[in-house]
Amino acid sequence: MSKSVNTMFNKIATKLQDWFPAPEVHAHCDGPCGVYDPASARITAEAVYSMTKKILELEVPAASDAKATIAYQNTLSRYIAIKEEQAQKTKEDILILWTDYFKPVHLDAYPDLHTTFWQAAKLCSACKVEVSLQHAQELLDAVQKIHQIFWATKNRDITWYKAS
Length: 164
Fold this sequence. Notes:
The chain has helices at 3-19, 39-57, 66-101, 104-109, 113-129, 133-153.
C-alpha cells in the first residue's frame, strides 16, 4: 500500500473515532469476567485423589512372575505420572485464581484467603511427592473451600459436586 493511501486510511480512522468514540472500560482481572472458575481445579484434584487411591490399591505381584511384574510397574508408573501431572495442573489453576482473580477487596471479606491458597498449593506439592490419601483428601477439601469463596465473591451459590 502506498504511503498516501496509508495516510488517507489513518485520517478516516481518526475521523471515525472522533464521531463514534469507544467508551472507556475497566476490568478487575486480566481476562474478561466469567473466564475464571475453580471447576478445573476440582476436576484435577479429584484425579489426584483417584490416582492416589488406585496406587494404594494396586497389588504387588509375586517377584517370580516377570510378566505380572512388568504389567504392575507399567500401571504403577502410569498412575504416578497422572497423579503428578494432575497435582501440577491443580496448582496452576489455583495459583491463577489466587494471583489473577482475587483482589484486596476479597481479602477484606476473607482474611484467611492467602493462607487458604498457600496451603492448597503446598498440598499440591505434597500430593506430587507422596502417596497419601489423607493429603489428597485435604487437597480436595481445600479446593472445595476455594470454590465456596470464589462463588461467594460473585454472590452466587454454586453447588459443589464431585464426579466420583
